[in-house]
Structure formats: C-alpha cells, structure tokens
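Risk register update: the risk that structure generation would not scale has been downgraded. Supporting records follow, first protein first.
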Amino acid sequence: MKKIFGRPKGLTDILMRYCPGCGHGVVHRIIGELLVELNVRERAVGIAPVGCSVFADEYFNCDMIQPPHGRGPAVSTGIKRARPECIVFSYQGDGDLAAIGTAEIIHAAGRNENITVIFINNAIFGMTGGQMAPTTLPGMRSTTSVKGRDIKKQGYPMKICELLSALDGPYYLERCAVTTPKNIIKTKKALKTAFRNQVENKGFSLVEILSMCPTGWGQTPVQAKKWVEEVMSKYYPLGVFRNRAEEEK
C-alpha cells in the first residue's frame, strides 16, 4: 500500500510533549514540511525558545540553538551575519518575544535583518503556570490576574504586528491562526512566504500565529478553538500588516 501521508522529514521521530489541543504541534508540522518543500533543511538553523516549546530543538530535524530567554532575534542576527548561507528561523512564544525579548524583536525588525520569526501568541505564560502575559486580553483571567486583566493597573496588551508595522524596517508581517483547516492552510502560506523572503534576501519577516492553550485557559480543546475564533481574533485581527513585495509592484 502506498503511503501518502506521514511525518515530514523536517521533524524528528521524537514524540512531542505538548498538551492536547495546543497549537504548537500544528505549527511544528507546517515548519517541518516547509523545510523540505523549500529544500532548505540541511542549511536551516532554528532558534528554540524558552517556554512551552523549549524542547523544539528535539523536534525539528535541523541544526538548533537554545539561547537565553528572549534573545532569539539577537542570536539569529549573529548566525545570519556570520553564515549568510544559512536559513535562520527564530521560534518564540509571547512571553519569550513580547516580554523579556521586546527590545530584541523591535531592533531586529528595525534593522530589517534577513531572518524569519515565528511568533506563537496564546495570550498567556503557558509553561510557568498560566500567568498574565504581555498579550493577555483585557478582562482575561490568569493566575496573576484572577479577576481579569485590569487595563488601569496592568495596561493594554501588546499588539506585535501593529507595533512592528510602525517601523520602516520590516519586509513582511502577517497574523494567522491554527484553529481551522482553512486557517492552517493560510498559516502555511504565510510561513512559506516568510521563508522565501529570507531565501531571496528580502529581509525581516515575522508571522504571528494565534494558538490555543487549553490548559492555561482552563478550557477543553474545542472551547479553546472557539475562544480564539470568537474572542481572541477580534482583539488580534488576522491579516497582512506589511508586505513590501506588494508595495513594490
């Protein structure tokens, strides 16, 4: 019998340890497929984050580096400048990128570094116990905002695509989701564009992906998908925020 579907060669055979309903596994598979489809796996270097996906260096079948918390864009910059033939991608969560790594992502984008950033936004600190993150929505409960995020005390959430789109540097910025087959297809298309931009030396690309965290949100996987669709995507609208390729036509 001919096998028509299986684990892509861009991933290892190690069993992933993510919670049921988490979006990390879906995004990992997309990246694993693209590393092969774009024929860049053997020269790819992935930057593993600090967070739930801290074990990404075990899952991607390419060279991986584990930097300090939030420093993915800085480490990516160093690798890309030292070895420009490498395809460098920084895989980061909202706590990693939007909290301790805010300065790194802003300056890498401002310099239009020729790297690809995959930003997983699940609106919470997942690995450390469900604390409020920079992306936690107004009124959203967490272990450190048990009555809901109070914007008078904790301020407004960080909208990374909107923030970076105010800079002149970035080449490509898009926000996607992995809640439905349709959205997953769009996410793969966006990530493929982001990797191709790097292959073609276009510059900085970031794809923000709204992802489910059933455990941190205290929901079932089905409820978590529905919450992203009906609530989260309203505050963080999906779409393209910068695409210089279109602007240059």
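Supporting record for the second protein:
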Amino acid sequence: MPSSLTEALHDWRDFYMLVGAAAAALVGLMFVAASIGASLFNDKYLGPMRAFITPTVVHFASVLFACILLTMPGHSWLSLGGLLGLGALAGLIYCGRVLSLILKKFRASLDWQDRAFYAVIPGFGYLLFLAAATMELWRQPASANALIAAAIMVLLAAGLRNAWDMMVWISVHAPVGPSSPSEPDAQP
C-alpha cells in the first residue's frame, strides 16, 4: 500500500488530466450546441431543456470537477474521500430529481433508453463515486482509483450518448427558414 495519498494518485495523474481536459471540452461543446439550438429554447421547450440538456452538462462538469479534485495537491485521505463522497451524494440527489422530472412530465413520450441514459445510468456513476469515496476513507487507493475510473467512464459514456441524442433532436426540430431568393421554389 502506498505510504501517502500523493503516491497513490501518481500513476493515475495522466488519466485524470486527459479525462479532465476532455470533459472541459465537452462542457464547452454543450454550450455551443445550446447556442445552435437557441431558437428552440422558448417557454414551450423549457421543461425538456431542464430534463435533458442541463443534466448532460452537469454530468460532464462532474467528471471535470472530479478530475480537478484528484489532481489537486495537498489532500488527505479524509479530505479526498469526503469531497468525493459529497459530490457523489449531490449527483445522486440530482439524478433523482431529473428522473422525477422525466417521469412526471415526459413519461408517455420517452422510451426506456432515454430514461436510463438521462438519469439511471448517471446515477450508477455517482454510486461508483460514492463507493470510491468509501475506499479512499478506508485507505484502499487501488480500489478507489479503479472505481473512480469506472464512474468517470460511465458518466462520460452517458453524456456522449445524450449529447448525440440532443443534437439529433435539435436538427429534427430546428425551424426551417424561407428558401433564399436565388433558389428556385421546389413546388410540383
């Protein structure tokens, strides 16, 4: 067992740096996607925005903040485990809120994959973070790092699937502007 937390995290530093940079880029791309679809985000689509776009940004941001936390120097076993645990609990509560919103407002219009990928699967990622926090508190760094990596991959996979799903939805629902004057009308 490594004698210090710094030694325990050393082998994982590059992984956390790479994944953190990817998560930061994905958060930025979600803002770009929201800007592209801004014409759709009116009062009619405020509920779907809260249920689908915001959670995806939150899950990507959770990965980013976890990676930042894990690369910060000066943690003790208690501080790292405690902060990971608090973040995991906040994520679980948030997933419960999203699932409640989805079931209340979109039950009839969503298939099981959407329910799973927007709330249930990310909730599993946060459970993995909670288990990792427990392993950190028990000074089991090998187990903790493996669980953290699994949690990160679950949240990234769910977020990527959801981002793709949203972009398809935006492209299908985007208002079509009038044809330009230089194009002939396509009337039969």
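Residues 5-170 form one domain. On this basis the risk owner (M.S.) recommends closing the item.
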